Amino acid sequence: MNGARQRLLSTPGRILLVSTSILGAMAFLWPFLVSATGTVDSAHHHDAPILLLVIAPLLLVLLAVEVSRGRIDARGIAVLGILAACGTALRIPSPGVAGLEPLFFLLVLAGRVYGPGFGFALGGLTILVSGIATGGVGPWLPFQMLAAGWVGAGAGMLPAGTGRAERWVLAGYTGVACILYGTVMNLWFWPFGVGGSTSISYVAGAGLATNLRHFIAFDLATSLGFDLPRAVLNATLILLVGAPVLVALRRAAARTRLGPSTEVLSEVAEAP
Amino acid sequence: MNREHRPHAVAWWLWSAGLAIAALRTSNPLLLLLLAGVICVVTLALADRTGGPSPLGTFARVAAIIIVLRVVLQVIFGQRVPGHVLVSLPSLPMPSWAEGVSIGGPVTVEGLLSALSGGLRLAVVLLAFGAANSLASPREVLRSLPGVLHEIAVAVTVALCFAPEVLASVRRVRQARMLRGRPTTGIAGMRGIAVPVLEDALERSVQLAASMGARGFGRRPVVRSRARDRGAVALAIVGSLLVLAGGYGILAGSDVIPGAAWLAVLGVVAAAGGVLLSGRRAVRTRYRPAPFGWRSTVCALSGWATAALMAVAGILDPASVTWSPWPLSWPAVTPLALLAIVVGLVPIPVALRPSPRGSTRALVEVGA
Amino acid sequence: MRRFSLLILAAALLGAVPGAAPALAAGERTIAVVVDFGAGEGLPASFTLCVKEPSGATDAQALADALTTAKLRQSTYSSSGLLCSIAGYPSTGCGVPTSSGYSYWAYFHGGAEGWSYASDGPAERTASPGTAEGWRFERDGRGNPSDQVPPGPSGPAALCPSSTETTSTTLPAVTTTTEATPVPISATASSTTTSQPLPPTSTTTPSVVHEAAARTAAAHEHSSSPASASAMVTVAAVGLLAVLGVVALVLRRRSRA
How far apart are CA B348 and CA B47, in angstroms? Predict the structure, then answer.
């Protein structure tokens, strides 16, 4: 791997990223965690959305503070902002096309080149910016930001490789990540989006197996038909257009690394 | 028109959050419809209608889709809740691994009403978000972010400014390719357009970084204290762990983790403390800061008063804010819940700008 | 949000699939309905009623018929379909957390080998012949299968000894079995039991339940505000809704102009 990786986060920052990611995962997975204990508590059931609407933005603020506080400099900000603008441009014309967002294609490649911390920041920022640009800041935004951040961070953590093998790994990862992204966003919506009176609802206290079955049925019924084409589109784009985009991103990364420095330099982790 | 007469952007988001929380605390369709009415009237009366279509319309459409989705799911996967059968759909046999999932079967009046009122609740929450987006653009909220988040706010601003330029760049490259007779659609077109646009954008980012660096961006005004940095991060981590434990406790029941709500509150305070502590360093000045005056305070308080009154009404008499179609009955409203709704209308007399025509005077009387 | 349109499409497809409903055998089945109030507030411990249901009826229907037969208040459900009260008990709350647990109506399926905690709702199950369905009010339960089961036998044969008989009547027939202190059977219960001979031990009385439930219900209604004032507030709310709607329409038209 010859890409220069910008480290946006210090060591405590990375601990914070991991701990808040675990917290974010809990925010998504609470129906399963709570049903594993087998207690019914419908009285607090309706508190869940309020709780999540507080916790998810809090996590993002924590992470944003950490990124701001860390080693980000003018070049990091500029690249982050411009790539987020490109991602937004990829998202804006496509809302009519059945959720076929080619955003993940850019996000995965940028995360690959610039590393997990940058990938996380880019994923979250792109979603935020497109939400602001379209006036669509809804309750789903923090969850989309977290999930897209994970997609970007995951791309930065893929094993080293070059050429054709790298592209196939990236394409495979993109396909899986796209489907997981859709599933995770369903998971957020499911417990209170469907109500309690259907056979695919979240049932408080019904146990893990029942709730898993209900969720899988909900996912199959509502969104897999959109997640699959999106996964295929993004993976195909990586296979066919990935190589020149990777070259362009790496060239830019190398130029930012070699440019005249301001006070806090973005650290460059040498690839093994 | 004077900007100072408008409440602060953050005040509008706080007001909307209050109404959304009030909606989440009730399942009474009459109260939910009243909340929706309050949200629409306040937004239509007070939103700045200078630019483009109102986000409220977009959110209203999404809300309508959600209500339809709820009803459709109820019809297909109706759990055969008891009640008066309206029509009986053929039911599909399910494989053994999908035990408990049923498709088809009788559709009951009660089940449909339950789906409608549940969908209405989500719809009101979405309308509240739509109102916030219409009353105060998220860009204005961005201006009020604390100094700690300065760098992120700059990145967002950069992205917001450059997104239209990227689109223009796409148009340019596409036009150039069309003139040369190269493909502009499909994979080949994508490849031919994406790479030059991206290279162009990355080139701009290098220029932007140079100009930002030349203007002193990224320089730290104060020497950083490592001990305090570590303390701030530790506080934030401990805070988020406490929020985790408390949130889990609240959802799983009081006996799993005692005092869960207090743990969660403590966690939020600790995390916020961590954020503030690490932000002490950052001293930034603002260009034309927007004042958070008494109008803003009243608007924000009005939304939260609605939420608080609704919660109190629910605690005093749970039956007054909840409604269930079993048995079928007309939803009743208590005076306290009605007061909660009326309090949500307070921003209209407070924030309505005096109109030269004087026609808004009548509006205030109707609205209040 | 656009994914929902696919869902609607899926709904249309599913609707078009010809009926593959399980063909239920014609004829009625006897279901033993056991309701245990968990010994509280002057209520009897429990009562058992055997009802006859047409094929395809759900267990919720069986419970409803049993309550109708006993002239008791119908059960209420929350907006998610959770069973809140049976025979008007408890008068408030639906699955209320207590200091150390959870107070709610637990639901059990009875078989020859005992009671088993139900993981589904009574409205989800089509009543199968010769089953027993039990509800027990858990005053301080856990909300899981460790909760206390209804007392007495769980086998339908033991609860409804004459369950193999079928009668042509469409009205649900009732037998009563002894559970609590022997009290002379009330007219309300006996009037509906004509189609079947009473088992030798049958003595209890839904009427005791009836009176107690009526008492709790009356107490609840008395405690709430007078009906006319409450109706006036509701009318005011509807009026406010109408005003808001008109104002919103006027404002919308003005903003478009």
Answer: 11
Q: Which residues of C touch A39 (CB under 8 A)?
A: 102, 142-144
Q: Which chains have 3+ CB pairs within 8 A of A?
A: B, C
Q: For C186-217, give one letter per residue: b (16+ CB within 10 A) or e.
A: beebeebbeebeebeebbbbbbbbbebbeebb
Query: Nearest C-alpha of chain C: how many angstroms from B156?
Result: 25
Residue recorded with tokens 């993004």: A234
Q: What's at B274, amino acid-wise? A: G
Is the CB of residue C242 less than 8 Å away from at least one CB of chain A? Answer: no
Determine the angle formed by the axes of helices A208-222 and C3-16, rounding to 10 degrees.
100
Q: What's the one-letter identity of residue C90?
A: P
Tens digits of per-residue pLDDT, C171-217?
Answer: 333 333 333 333 333 333 333 333 333 333 333 444 545 555 555 54
- The predicted model gives B262-290 an average pLDDT of 72
Cα–Cα distance, A106 to B207 (Å, whole number): 21
Q: How many Cβ atoms from other residues are within 10 Å of residue B318's Cβ?
A: 14
Reported residue count of chain C is 257
Q: How confident is the model at residue A214 (pLDDT cuts 50, 70, 90)?
A: confident
**Identity of the amino acid at A3:** G
Segment (H or E) for C47: strand C46-54
What do you get for the CA distance between the two ends of chain C, in Å? 30
Antiparallel, parallel or unpaired: β C131-141 and C28-36: parallel
3-state secondary structure of B360: helix
Alpha-carbon distance of B138 to C2, in angstroms, equals 23
Q: If you ran DSSP here, which 8-state letter would residue A270 be given?
A: P
**B300's tokens:** 């924000």
CA distance B332 to C237: 9
| Helical (H) or strand (E) element with B92 | strand B85-92
What is the C-alpha to C-alpha distance for residues B167 and B172, in angstroms, rounded to an integer?
9
The residue type found at C76 is T
The torsion angles phi and psi of B285, rounded to 5 degrees, stand at: -100, 155
Beta bridge partners of C115: C110
Write down the pTM of the prediction: 0.77
Q: Are A238 and A105 in contact (CB under 8 A)?
A: yes
First-to-last CA distance in chain B? 24
**C83 sits in which H/E element:** strand C83-85
Both structure tokens of B100:
């408990």
Q: At what angle do helices A163-193 and A11-37 cross, to 10 degrees?
A: 50
Assign domain A5-258 to a CATH class: mainly alpha
Chain C residues touching residue B80 (CB < 8 angstroms): 58, 123-124
Residue carrying structure tokens 């608080």: B308
Q: H helices of chain C, where?
A: 3-16, 59-69, 156-159, 187-190, 206-223, 227-256
SS3 state at B230 = helix
Q: Which of A175, A177, A169 is nearest to A150 (CA)?
A: A177
Q: Which of residues 81-120 of B touch C (CB under 8 A)?
A: 81-82, 89-93, 100, 102-104, 110-111, 114, 117-118
Give pLDDT tens digits for B141-170. 887 776 667 778 888 888 988 888 888 888
Q: Domain ranges in chain A?
A: 5-258
HSE, side-chain direction, 13 A CA sphere, residue B109: 9
Output phi, psi for B104, to 5 deg: 85, -160
> What is the identity of the amino acid at B161?
C
pLDDT score for C26: 55
Whether the CB of A163 is below 8 Å from some CB of chain C: the reply is no
Q: What is the ipTM of this complex?
A: 0.81
- Provide the CA A53 distance to its chain's centre, in angstroms: 18
Q: Which domains does chain C have, with CATH numbers?
A: 28-220 (2.170.130.30)
The Cα–Cα gap between A82 and B161 comes to 9
